[in-house]
């Protein structure tokens, strides 16, 4: 076990390159199972989650090579059973369900593990595959999908009680590429990561229209072929660094970003009064002592992302004003609040709304990361705290941020990774 020691107060300044998207990389890697040909995926971030996905592909029989952010996969002969020992470690492993069944007409995948931020059911994944003609049983922690006659396209709606499902949309879209006829997904997730997967599938020979909207149309084809693809930048990593640059320092510049994917984040920061400059593939930000508080509500894309809620809670602590943020996607996603309060943050949690009174000095303390984004928020809080902050359970950060501590150090942060 490792922990991160953050020495607060060190100003940030400089440039940082944003890595490829975790939430794009995982389903794109899974999609390589849809063809026997070689696929080359570039700018895959070095994360524990992507490492697990690479291992899952190998366990399923694919030949996988990885070096310097490039993953080459040749899934000529694959198995239909995803191993529990790996699947249990990562929720996104569920996205092998669609490609395995699409290609082999059957599969067995263990119910996945991963984050503990509340109920994240796979019901919509299964509903979508059933609409394509699959027979599904869930028993003993395993999902068994059988489509002996192959998938048949048809209409479906994947909207759930808290919005559309990203991985569910990914799963159904991948399975539908090899179905007979046309599949129409209403209530589809419109996130850039879904569109990125669709663009990769199209390069493989799939016929997909509407990705990036709430209505996706897939016309099935007989087979897919190999392709090369470069993963889009990680908008959540970029948003996390924008919060860091707004909280402390003299200004930082993010490179390798797609500003069009981050309009809600940059818009919220601008509304607070933080100076932002946006280029073709760069965003610069600096602190503003007179910044105003915010009132935000998390929504499905293109709304404000739930994956930035915790980081904006940390940002609010640095703003001498009152801010509120309401969580509508995962209402239980506030486990970082108790840890921030240990540091002296003034946060009142009422149901799914956090009210933060910022501008008060916070002090370093030992804190416990409960999930990926909460861990990043605790690091941000540590940057502005007096003294030393110990962030425990560092493996949560390594799931979704490529070398976060190294990147912050290049900007001037004083922090160190140590074994517990």
Main sheet strand line-up: 24-25-1-26
Q: Considering the protein shown, what is the CATH homologous superfamily of the largest domain?
A: Enolpyruvate transferase domain
How many helices does DSSP assign?
Answer: 14
Overall mean pLDDT score?
A: 94
- The overall number of domains is 2
Oligomeric state of the chains? Answer: single chain
Terminus-to-terminus distance: 6 Å
User: Spans of 5+ residues with little confidence (pLDDT < 50)?
Assistant: 114-120
CATH architecture of the largest domain: Alpha-beta prism
List how many beta strands DSSP finds. 26
> Percentage of helical residues?
25-40%
Could you tell me the CATH topology label of the largest domain: UDP-n-acetylglucosamine1-carboxyvinyl-transferase, Chain
Strand count, sense and barrel status of the largest sheet are:
4 strands, mixed
Report the C-alpha radius of gyration, rounded: 21 Å
Proportion of β residues?
A: 25-35%
CATH class of the largest domain, anyone? Alpha Beta
Which structural category do the helix and sheet elements fall into?
A: alpha+beta
Subcellular location: Cytoplasm
Modified residues (2-(S-cysteinyl)pyruvic acid O-phosphothioketal): 115
GO cellular component, one term: cytoplasm
Function: Cell wall formation. Adds enolpyruvyl to UDP-N-acetylglucosamine.
Produce the secondary structure layout.
Elements: E1 2-7, E2 13-17, H1 22-31, E3 38-42, H2 48-59, E4 63-67, E5 70-74, E6 81-82, H3 84-87, H4 97-104, E7 106-110, H5 123-131, E8 135-139, E9 142-146, E10 155-157, E11 159-160, E12 163-164, H6 166-176, E13 182-186, H7 192-203, E14 207-209, E15 215-219, E16 228-230, H8 235-247, E17 251-255, H9 263-272, E18 276-278, E19 282-285, E20 295-297, H10 309-317, E21 322-326, H11 335-342, E22 346-350, E23 353-357, E24 366-368, H12 372-384, E25 388-392, H13 395-400, H14 404-410, E26 414-419
Parallel strand pairs: 2-17, 3-16, 6-7, 10-13, 20-21, 24-25
Antiparallel strand pairs: 1-25, 1-26, 3-5, 4-5, 7-9, 8-9, 11-12, 13-15, 14-15, 17-19, 18-19, 21-23, 22-23
Catalytic activity: phosphoenolpyruvate + UDP-N-acetyl-alpha-D-glucosamine = UDP-N-acetyl-3-O-(1-carboxyvinyl)-alpha-D-glucosamine + phosphate
Subcellular location: Cytoplasm
GO molecular function: UDP-N-acetylglucosamine 1-carboxyvinyltransferase activity
């Amino acid at each position: 076990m490792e922990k991160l020691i953050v020495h607060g107060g060190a100003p940030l300044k400089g440039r940082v390159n944003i890595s490829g998207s975790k939430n794009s990389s995982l389903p794109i890697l899974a999609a390589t199972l849809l063809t026997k040909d070689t696929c080359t995926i570039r700018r895959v971030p070095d994360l524990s989650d992507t490492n697990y996905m690479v291992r899952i592909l190998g366990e399923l029989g694919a030949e996988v090579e990885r070096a310097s952010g490039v993953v080459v996969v040749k899934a000529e002969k694959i198995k239909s059973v995803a191993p529990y020992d790996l699947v249990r470690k990562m929720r996104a492993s569920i996205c092998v369900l669609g490609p395995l069944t699409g290609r082999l007409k059957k599969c067995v995948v263990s119910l996945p593990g991963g984050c503990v931020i509340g109920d994240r059911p796979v019901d919509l994944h299964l509903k979508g595959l059933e609409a394509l003609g699959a027979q599904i049983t869930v028993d003993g922690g395993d999902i068994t999908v059988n489509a002996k006659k192959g998938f048949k396209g048809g209409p479906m709606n994947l909207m759930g009680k808290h919005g559309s499902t990203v991985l569910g949309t990914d799963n159904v879209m991948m399975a539908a590429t090899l179905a007979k006829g046309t599949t129409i997904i209403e209530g589809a997730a419109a996130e850039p990561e879904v569109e990125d997967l669709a663009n990769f599938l199209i390069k493989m020979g799939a016929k997909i229209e509407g990705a990036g909207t709430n209505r996706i149309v897939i016309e099935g084809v007989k087979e897919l072929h190999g392709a090369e693809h470069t993963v889009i930048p990680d908008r959540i990593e970029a948003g996390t660094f924008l919060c860091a640059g707004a909280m402390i320092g003299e200004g930082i510049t993010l490179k390798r970003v797609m500003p069009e994917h981050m309009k809600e984040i940059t818009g919220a920061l601008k509304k607070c009064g933080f100076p932002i400059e946006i280029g073709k593939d760069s965003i610069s930000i600096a602190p503003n002592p007179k910044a105003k508080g915010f009132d935000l509500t998390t929504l499905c894309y293109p709304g404000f992302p739930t994956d930035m809620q915790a980081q904006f809670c940390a940002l609010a602590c640095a703003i001498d004003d009152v801010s509120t943020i309401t969580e509508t996607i995962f209402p239980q996603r506030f486990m970082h609040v108790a840890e921030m309060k240990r540091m002296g943050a003034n946060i009142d949690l009422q149901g799914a709304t956090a009210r933060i009174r910022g501008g008060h000095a916070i002090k370093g303390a030992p804190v416990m990361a409960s999930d990926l984004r909460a861990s990043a928020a605790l690091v941000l809080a540590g940057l502005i705290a007096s003294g030393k902050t110990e962030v425990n359970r560092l493996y949560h950060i390594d799931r979704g941020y490529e070398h976060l501590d190294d990147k912050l150090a290049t900007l001037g942060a004083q922090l160190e990774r140590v074994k517990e």
